[in-house]
Amino acid sequence: MSTSTAVATLGLDAHSLSEQLSSLAQGLGIERWDLGAACSTDTSVQVDRGEAKQLKGAQRSAITVRVWNGDGLVGITSTSDLSPAGLARALSGARDASAYGNADDIPAFSPLATAPLEPLDQPLVEPRGILELLDTLREAERDLLGRHAAITTVPYNGLAQRSSERLYLNSAGACREQKLTTASLYLYARSEEEGRKPRSSGAVRLAYGLKQLDVAGCIAEAAERTIAHLDYAPIQTGHYTCIFSPEAFLDLIGAFSSLFNARAVLDGVSLSDRDALGSTLAVPFLSIHDNGLHPGNVGASNFDGEGTPVRRLALVEGGVLRHFLHSEATARAFAVEPTGHAGLGAKVSVGPHWFEVGPSAGSSGGASGLDRHSADGVVWIDSLSALHAGVKASQGSFSLPFDGWLIRNGEARSIEAATVAGDIRAVLKGLLGFEGEAKLTPDGLCPHVWVEGLSVTGDA
Amino acid sequence: MEVFLESADHIGLLAEQDRITSVSPAFGRGAGVRVFRGERDGFVSTNDLSERGLLVALEQALGMLGLTISSSSLSGFDGLPELHDHALAKGDWLGACPTLAESTDRLLEGTALLDRHGQHLQARRGSYARDWQEVMVAASDGTFARDIRLHQSVGLTALAADGDHRASQGRRYGSSDRPDDLRQWDAQTAAIDLCASTQAMLHADYVEAGTYPVVLANRFGGVIFHEACGHLLETTQVERGTTPFADRIEAPIAHTAVTAIDEGLSDGAFGSLSMDDEGMAPQRTVLIENGVLKRFLSDRAGELRTGHPRTGSGRRQSHAFAAASRMRNTYIAAGPHTPEQLIESVDRGLYCKSMGGGSVGPTGQFNFAVEEGYLIENGRLGKPVKGATLIGEAKEVMPRLSMCANDLELAAGFCGSVSGSIFVTVGQPHIKVDAITVGGR
After folding, report:
1. For chain A, which end, N or C, has fewer CB atoms within 10 Å of the first or last residue's CB respectively?
2. For B310-336, what is each residue's pLDDT tens digit?
3. Which domain covers residue A195, as residue numbers?
4. Are residues A247 and A274 in the same domain?
5. With an 8 Å Cβ cutoff, are B59 and A394 in contact?
């Protein structure tokens, strides 16, 4: 078979789409519109003990059009039908929806929708044939199964590659385009020993193409983490100093990102209020930035859903809340510039891209000499689960299952099953310090983070 | 080989305080082509329904298995039979749904009722979603069927704040195949119930962590069975080797008080179907009877790979997903007790009146957030507590599910898994679990 069956020519042509939309809008009496469009082709494989389980391919297209009616109100419609008939239906649907637009919160074009963009170094990689993906994953599974006798299966695995295009256009002449290729690998192994409960852990890797993927690193990490949980014991319920892995701490910050979200602030569902900028949110040595442009952020975009350039933004510096994430509309409400964190919708969403967490410039970074390998009586949290169910972002509380280890006299033993509970405000003010260098993860950059006095529930 | 065609039409509405803040229509179409060769399958989805687009998808699916159109023959296939058309009586459903004006009015009525009945409310929200879907399935085993599905859900959420105390609660109601349902929605009862719950939790203390007997309320309390056990009874889990029940058919896996059912037949329930996404009629599948495992939920691939016969449970979010064995309306059957008898049987424990979401991990460990909880002391309900999470493993917890009350009720929900997010119903009567780990402060 051909090695490039997965990738057909993608279907977005900015000039053609713009002309079609202009013509259709004129016919419907619509003077002001914008659109976001995306198109992708994907191939992916899964294996099961040496056999191909499922091979998948997908061609997807999606477009969202937004129109302003004669009263200045906004309506949208989304569709996967990019035919002329589909575009016409989307425009007229958006015009109908605009009758219900919110007069109290009318979005406008971003004033930065034509501002220069920061260039991204994203190589476009020719996709590989699906049989090559299959061979690569089969070999990875075989390698992982051979790392330890207790690793019996790799029940969750996948190797995927994607080619995609993304556009933002508006009737004032803005035109943003991005082309991207990515590849991803995940390996979650299950281990089982006689008379013991099954254990599971894994690893993920992202890159711009199959050949750039760190397959060996993914196998090694999945094996190491799975084996590290084989010897487990229950933990006594109580309060512990906890060490969050970079991945776990980034997950926690992401789950409570409404703290920094101007949309959530305006809606009254954030723990922050309008006057919170400049207030102390955390220990004085903590810094949190959002930086979608970081070279480690595979798949980064340099413009948001409204065409605003993405940029690095200080959220917390020296423990003080410095900036909120903004769309065009929230920025206008706060009398600041949009920050490049908007989606595109009837109600424009706002969200973070990629966090950088670490010590504030010039600070000591908290307690020195923190070393989990010589600690005693502390809990090392490797990964958090079920954030969708266990986080109450508007209340600040969380209660989350985790995989991790109890460290006694420098010896780590896996914890059988436990949850960690607390309040994000107490966590941010209870940081003891950082351990080691910041680690690059798919969600951001962060070192290990020590936090005191969290409630851990165990089975002992 | 199977071809799945889909046309979809969605509307989503959001009301905040006393304003409509989002009207989000969406429509689309697409196809999914799936080819089996032995136990392997290749699946390709596309939005391009032109002849060329479909041909490319077919060639790609065949190519994944080392086949080509010219080399492929469908053994035993001699053309499609007459269309089995479940959609005939459903053609006017979309037009019979409430108009945008009616829908927005009903949502604003809901948020106004929250304002009327609530205290300390900082944010009030109402949301409505209407999903219309027309599907057609044609397969080389002679399946040729069409259906129209209609799902509507409406929800209210409230955030209360009083000084440092905060509480947020939500309620969602959903139905299938009832165009008139939003008009019939009892917004008043929903708002009163939600406000009472939010008020009760606003000043609640955090629950003390430990292991307790727990009584779970009916309706959405059924999420515990869905997550803890239901997923482990899908053949996708048998295929992966991730269910502890794979070789336990006709063996006891739960307390004798437990009989559990999954079906796609209950009138108007969120998980009901005229046919599954592989064109098969839904069934009433008894999963567990008096504690004994009876059946797994199976789809076409599950039957092929595990030998468990199909149960009309092949489901998918859209054409972009291959069907997989998934739950429909899943519930624990009613028992002989009253809810009060369950509470009276507990000296010190936790009453979970309202459950939040949960999940189950690859080794069978589950967790659920308790949205509204109360202590049980000496057989009586005590003070409200918040921040509780129930944690356990199905294999250990199911034998401890010792009492079922006589008040079975169902609740609508969404389930995300291998074939996307689908409409489901969970349900149960009040049940008692003798001991379960409760995460707290």
Report:
1. C
2. 999 999 999 999 999 999 999 999 999
3. 14-224
4. yes
5. no
